[in-house]
């Protein structure tokens, strides 16, 4: 049976020195001999703690601009030697290699460098070689060696060694070995994806940290979120976000990213049920809610301006799950905290524009995000009748909404307000009929309204139904072999139609 291991020798070589002083002092207090290199050696010596130079052990200085410091048998032998293997013990004695019972090593900041520069030479220099090798070696030999490769663990390890008189248990060493392989696999995945970003040969994703959710889409399903959620959102109040909350929050933030003027959107089951752009946030909220106050119950609200006290009073009247905004002014937060389970979030940064992927069948599909935001000059006018400047604004408004709504979808808008929507239908005609019915249910006048479709019209039936309802301007991708039939109907009935050339399917 393997006994606890007393730490006698430690190898320390880290990029990040945060918290290293506490660990180094704890090791010195336990009489541990510390071996180190370069900047780490200087840091520890300035603490008044003696350090053995690795170059004195190996007989070689740091060479090639620091690329080679620890890649030597006297270092790796000390890490990989098996304490109960007789041949290993004989060779350790023969070559006068010290046993390393603790290895404290982290990795060059490759991920951070990729985010901060496009200079390939700078990025390549941050691909760690020795660090990864040291970590893997120590983790492999967890029976005898403790590996620590994250500055977040320095304090915990310092306290653990002090409490245990410098000893570590097999269970502790194995736990840290698991963490180590997590670190190196994540690191290698990032490097692979950097080199393969144009034409990947395999799907590799390492997303951390992991956060267990209460459950998945339904209570009988387990759920986990992977990712640094706090980089994008700060939660100020309310219960823990659920799996479904996260899906709706994602939909809300993606939609709101397309709007620059004061706008409020209400999301239900990943689809918008109310959106309005207005001079003030309070007006935007009131008109977004008016789009479908029934569906808004229990929904997600997102705003692109800080929530003021007036808006907060209005929002407080509605039962809703989550509110997202860039901030909260004055007493707004106090008002909104009146419901203990209501989740209040601050959006800290724009949504990432990386790839989208989804697990399907026995694999994964990946695609670019739909980042197209149309402007008036992008529209192709294809009919005799033209839209008014206000209708052009409404069409662009509607196109941004249709892009974030499940297909098949039709969006009806007027005065930059969502007044009817048909989402997730198997028939585009049904989507339009649902949108018209919604508009009628909540008292909207469709005369002069605009219609947006996420894909082309294969027949003129939709423009005929829309025209009979009073809609006088249509925006759609175009591209059907029968586009001319829809254009002809619009010309006969004085409806303006514009093609975008961009389809917005969302499955």
Explain this structure:
This protein is an alpha/beta fold and 507 residues long. It has 3 domains: 5-195, Methylglyoxal synthase-like domain (Rossmann fold, 3-Layer(aba) Sandwich), CATH 3.40.50.1380; 231-347, 3-Layer(aba) Sandwich (Cytidine Deaminase, domain 2), CATH 3.40.140; 377-499, Cytidine Deaminase, domain 2 (3-Layer(aba) Sandwich), CATH 3.40.140.20. Strands 10-15-14-13-11-12 form a 6-stranded mixed β-sheet, with helices on both faces. Strands 18-23-22-21-19-20 form a 6-stranded mixed β-sheet, sandwiched between helices. Strands 4-3-2-5-6 form a 5-stranded parallel β-sheet, with helices on both faces. A hairpin with a 2-residue loop joins strand 11 and strand 12. Helix 8 packs antiparallel against helix 10 and helix 12 (281-291) packs parallel to helix 13. The two termini are 56 Å apart.
């Amino acid at each position: 049976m393997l006994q606890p291991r007393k730490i006698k020798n430690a190898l320390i070589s880290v990029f990040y020195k945060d918290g290293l002083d506490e660990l180094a002092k704890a090791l010195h207090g336990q009489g541990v001999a510390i071996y180190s290199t370069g900047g780490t050696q200087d840091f520890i010596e300035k603490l008044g703690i003696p350090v053995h130079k690795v170059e004195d052990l190996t007989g070689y200085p740091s060479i090639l601009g620091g690329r080679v410091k620890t890649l030597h048998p006297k270092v790796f032998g000390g890490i990989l030697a098996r304490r109960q293997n007789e041949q290993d013990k004989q060779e350790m004695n023969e070559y006068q290699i010290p046993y390393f019972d603790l290895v404290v090593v982290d990795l060059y900041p490759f991920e951070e460098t990729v985010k901060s520069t496009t200079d390939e030479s700078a990025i390549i220099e941050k691909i760690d070689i020795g660090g990864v090798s040291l970590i893997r070696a120590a983790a492999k030999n967890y029976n005898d060696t403790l590996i620590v490769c994250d500055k977040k663990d320095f304090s915990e390890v310092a306290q653990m060694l002090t409490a245990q008189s410098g000893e570590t248990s097999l269970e502790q060493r194995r736990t840290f070995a698991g963490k180590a392989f997590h670190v190196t696999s994540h690191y290698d995945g990032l490097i692979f994806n950097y080199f393969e970003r144009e034409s990947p040969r395999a799907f590799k994703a390492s997303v951390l940290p992991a956060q267990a959710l209460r459950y998945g889409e339904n209570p009988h399903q387990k759920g986990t979120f992977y990712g640094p959620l706090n980089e994008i959102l700060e939660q100020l109040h309310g219960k823990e976000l659920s799996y479904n909350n996260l899906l709706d929050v994602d939909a809300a933030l993606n939609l709101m990213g397309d709007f620059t003027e004061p706008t409020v959107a209400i999301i239900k089951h990943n689809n918008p049920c109310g959106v309005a752009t207005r001079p003030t946030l309070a007006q935007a909220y009131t008109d977004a809610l008016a789009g479908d106050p029934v569906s808004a119950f229990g929904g997600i609200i997102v705003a692109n301006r800080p929530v003021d006290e007036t808006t907060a009073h209005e929002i407080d009247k509605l039962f809703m799950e989550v509110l997202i905004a860039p901030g909260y002014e004055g007493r707004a937060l106090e008002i909104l905290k009146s419901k203990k389970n209501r989740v209040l979030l601050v959006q800290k940064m724009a949504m990432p524009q990386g790839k989208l992927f989804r697990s399907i069948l026995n694999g994964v599909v990946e695609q670019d995000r739909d980042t197209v935001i149309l402007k008036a000059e992008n529209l192709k006018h294809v009919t005799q009748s033209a839209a008014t400047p206000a209708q052009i604004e409404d069409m662009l408004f509607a196109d941004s909404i249709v892009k974030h709504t499940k297909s098949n979808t039709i969006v009806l808008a007027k005065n930059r307000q969502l007044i009817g929507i048909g989402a997730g239908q198997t028939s585009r005609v049904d989507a339009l009929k649902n949108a018209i019915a919604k508009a009628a249910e909540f008292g909207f006048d469709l005369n002069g309204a605009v219609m947006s479709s996420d894909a082309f019209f294969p027949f003129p039936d939709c423009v005929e139904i829309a025209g009979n309802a009073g809609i006088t301007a249509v925006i759609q991708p175009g591209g059907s072999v029968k586009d001319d039939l829809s254009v002809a109907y619009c010309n006969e009935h004085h409806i303006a139609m514009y093609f975008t050339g961009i389809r917005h399917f969302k499955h």
